[in-house]
Amino acid sequence: MNEEQWARIVKYTELQGTSGQENLVRAAFREDLTPLVDEVVQNGLGGLYGLINHHDLNAPRVMFGAHFDEVGFIVKRITPRGLLEVKALGGWNATVVSAQRFTLFTRYHEYPIVSSSVAPHLLRGQSGESKVPTLNQILFDGGFTSAVEAEELGVRPGDFIVPDVKTVRMANPNRVVSKSWDNRFGLVTILDVLERLQNQTIPNTLIMGANVQEEVGLRGVGPAVHQLQPDLFFGLDCSTADDLTTETGQGQLDHGAILRVVDPGVIMPRRLKEFILDMASDEHIPLQYFVPNGGTDAAGAQSQNNGIPAVTLGVASRYIHTHQTVWSIADFQAAEQLLEKLILNLDASTVNDIIYGD
To answer: Rounded to an integer, what distance in angstroms lies between the CA atom of residue 54 and that of residue 59?
Structure first.
């Protein structure tokens, strides 16, 4: 990995943008995407895609979609003592939220803020077991002394709260710890692959970009697919690794990219699966089968228009949807290599066979 690629990873994982507040991430992505494509389009919800147009208007349209948003919170109420009650945006495990640093985004300002916790000293002498607070019980502390002070400083219900974390390589330089690899992985991968494709012959109209509000119900992918009319859709996303105590759990770090063959929203089309598996085998790209319990934007894409064959490719990472995700550079590089090869081999005949072949 060169310094430019590492700088891009740091840039995008440290950028802050939760569901409904993706503007900072989108602005950076637009700037980096524009020189690499023929045109950039944005839909009404805020999804953004770049197109490399094929000279043949009948060439297949192949779409790769990541998502901008990371998990976060939105302010629900300011208490009389100046603490903030919140609602979660995306899936959080309540046990990992307390005593963490976040940034509060108001209309005009950004303030440091921390999630509340109970010190062990205050639990001494209490009978019974202490209970983990629910997400609705965790208050956020911006140092405000009262609701009046918070309001005078511009805080309002509907403001966003996003994790504040630095990205670093670990003692093993093949491992990284960062926030929001779900799904800044997808953004970095798209930009890296588009750079590799410059001056290469692409046998399709290539559509690459990102949707909004994936973490709160796959809300952004439908408008993007309707606007851009792809023949195939590939979701790019980061999923959870289960490799802390076993070598048989799904999603092993350093074992390659992942192929989500089935999840609650998508059964991978047979011909598409065969094409991806053959490509990975021919190019000696490590690939893991993955059967998760959650969904991705592929589920939101497949039933649009007249039906779109869809699947999600990506990487598995530890501790996603927290402040500290641990992930493998080798897996990330395998995913990028697979993406590039797929794009260069999805010509009209291949896409037609994937869609209509028996």
So the answer is: 7
d(CA 193, CA 273) in angstroms, rounded, equals: 21
Beta bridge partners of 85: 77
Relative to beta strand 160-163, strand 101-105 is: antiparallel
- Condensed to tens digits (0 to 9), the pLDDT of residues 201-254 reads 999 999 999 999 999 999 999 999 999 999 999 999 999 999 999 999 999 999
For the beta sheet containing 325-328, the strands, ordered from the edge strand earlier in sequence to the opposite edge, are 168-169, 175-178, 325-328
**pLDDT tens digit string along 116-168?**
987 766 666 565 556 778 888 899 999 999 999 999 999 999 999 999 999 99
18 residue type, one letter: T
Cα distance between residue 16 and residue 18, in whole Å: 7
What amino acid positions are annotated as catalytic residues? Answer: 214
What is the pTM assigned to this prediction?
Answer: 0.95
Q: How many whole angstroms from its chain centre is CA 178?
A: 13
Alpha-carbon distance of 283 to 340, in angstroms, equals: 11
Cα dihedral value 310, 345, 256, 233, nearest 10: -20
| φ, ψ of residue 8 in degrees (nearest 5) | -65, -40
Q: In terms of residues, how long is the chain?
A: 358
Amino acid at 320: I
CA angle 292, 344, 34 (to 5 degrees): 85
